[in-house]
């Protein structure tokens, strides 16, 4: 590695968790994926991804449930960095990726996808590629269904398998309580289960609900709560029946709405305001319904550079 590369600073990117305010799942496609109509919503439960010049490629992970995240080539953040490097060999060089986790692992909040987006943005800056978010979208789409949204954040409508993202008009901010279940749920297993449960049913092509988009435009918390919907919730409850009890407990304790986030097992509750969110979080813990609880607010921006770290 040249001295010029060795003296480059590392780049740290903050990336948000996502909630699916609505997730409608179509029938299986010939490519094995399912068509989706979803409304993504980024919240301030975040990971930090740092890339630094290195003699060889590598990754390490710290933070919440870090032991559950691979530290080899199957790590999505490292895979993102290597994929981008493969397309820009004239400027790219090996990096070490450090991930600091706060987003639940295998929790349905797209933590792995967020880390991949963070690695793309960090490497774009470190290598001086000048792609920006728009130029990174084609790489994000190859990595996974939620990576494109993690680049842009905010609130957005997703289609295709989730990789086509269009910002949604929204007003106001929304307060959430996030219940992190013990253990994870694999996304493929949840999709297999929804296919099993639907066997013999006619499954329409998914479309977003106009009522939910209208509630977001108006900043209507009660209206949004009434429209929260997730087709995968049935499958998550089938695989982990105890999750339904947690969802019901949160609604009884004062949440205006609640649902499984993505493929689960994380459950999110919408509160009327910040004070109500804090009260709900405490009530869930005190009642014994949950032990790992976070409060969060959204929408927040997608992947953002927060620091350039001088070389050691």
TrEMBL record:
Keywords of this entry: ATP-binding, Isoprene biosynthesis, Kinase, Nucleotide-binding, Transferase
Nucleotide-binding among keywords: yes
UniProt lineage: Bacteria, Bacillati, Actinomycetota, Actinomycetes, Micrococcales
EC numbers: 2.7.1.148
Function summary: Catalyzes the phosphorylation of the position 2 hydroxy group of 4-diphosphocytidyl-2C-methyl-D-erythritol.
UniProt record similarity statement: Belongs to the GHMP kinase family. IspE subfamily.
Catalytic reactions of this protein: 4-CDP-2-C-methyl-D-erythritol + ATP = 4-CDP-2-C-methyl-D-erythritol 2-phosphate + ADP + H(+)
Pfam families: GHMP_kinases_C, GHMP_kinases_N
GO-annotated biological processes: isopentenyl diphosphate biosynthetic process, methylerythritol 4-phosphate pathway; terpenoid biosynthetic process
Annotated pathway: Isoprenoid biosynthesis; isopentenyl diphosphate biosynthesis via DXP pathway; isopentenyl diphosphate from 1-deoxy-D-xylulose 5-phosphate: step 3/6
Amino acids binding ATP: 104-114
Entries under InterPro entries matching the protein: GHMP_kinase_C_dom (IPR013750), GHMP_kinase_C_sf (IPR036554), GHMP_kinase_N_dom (IPR006204), IspE (IPR004424), Ribosomal_Su5_D2-typ_SF (IPR020568), Ribsml_uS5_D2-typ_fold_subgr (IPR014721)
SUPFAM superfamilies the UniProt entry points to: GHMP Kinase, C-terminal domain, Ribosomal protein S5 domain 2-like
Catalytic residues (UniProt): 18, 146
The protein's enzyme class: transferase
Gene giving rise to this polypeptide: ispE
Keyword Chloroplast: no
Protein's recorded name: 4-diphosphocytidyl-2-C-methyl-D-erythritol kinase
GO molecular function: 4-(cytidine 5'-diphospho)-2-C-methyl-D-erythritol kinase activity; ATP binding
HAMAP family: IspE (MF_00061)
Residues annotated as domain GHMP kinase C-terminal: 212-284
All copies of domain GHMP kinase N-terminal, residue ranges: 75-154
């Amino acid at each position: 590695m040249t001295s010029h590369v060795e003296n480059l600073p590392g780049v740290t990117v903050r990336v948000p968790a996502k909630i699916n305010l609505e997730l409608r799942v179509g029938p299986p496609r010939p490519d094995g994926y399912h068509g989706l109509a979803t409304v993504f919503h980024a919240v301030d439960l975040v990971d930090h991804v740092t890339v630094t010049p290195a003699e060889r490629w590598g990754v390490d992970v710290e933070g919440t449930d870090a032991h559950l995240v691979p530290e080899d080539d199957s790590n999505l953040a490292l895979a993102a960095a290597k994929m981008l490097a493969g397309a820009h060999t004239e400027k790219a060089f090996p990096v070490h990726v450090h991930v600091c986790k706060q987003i639940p692992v295998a929790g349905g909040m797209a933590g792995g996808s967020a880390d991949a987006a963070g690695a793309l943005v960090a490497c774009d800056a470190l290598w001086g590629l000048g792609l920006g978010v728009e130029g990174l979208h084609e790489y994000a789409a190859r990595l996974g269904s939620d990576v494109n949204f993690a680049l842009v954040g905010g609130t957005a409508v997703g289609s295709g398998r989730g990789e086509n993202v269009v910002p949604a008009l929204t007003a106001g901010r929304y307060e959430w309580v996030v219940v992190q279940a013990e253990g994870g749920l694999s996304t493929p297993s949840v999709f297999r289960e929804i296919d099993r449960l639907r066997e013999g049913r006619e499954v329409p092509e998914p479309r977003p609900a106009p009522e939910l988009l209208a509630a977001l435009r108006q900043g209507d918390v009660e209206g949004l709560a009434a429209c929260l919907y997730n087709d995968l919730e049935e499958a998550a409850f089938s695989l982990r029946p105890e999750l339904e009890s947690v969802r019901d407990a949160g609604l009884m304790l004062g949440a205006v709405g609640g649902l499984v986030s993505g493929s689960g097992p994380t459950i999110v509750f919408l509160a009327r305001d910040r004070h109500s969110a804090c009260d709900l979080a405490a009530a869930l813990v005190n009642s014994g319904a949950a032990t790992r609880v976070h409060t969060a607010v959204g929408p927040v921006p997608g992947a953002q550079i927060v620091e350039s770290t001088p070389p050691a």
